[in-house]
Amino acid sequence: MDEASFNLWLKKTHTWTRADRPVRFVLGQNRCSGLTVFGAIGTHLDLPAFSLEESTNGDAFGRFLKKIRVWADNDRKIFLVLDNAPAHRTLANKQLAATLKLELMFLPPYTPELNSIEALWSVIKSDFKQRAIARNMVRMKQE
Question: 67 or 137: whose pLDDT is higher?
Answer without folding.
Answer: 67
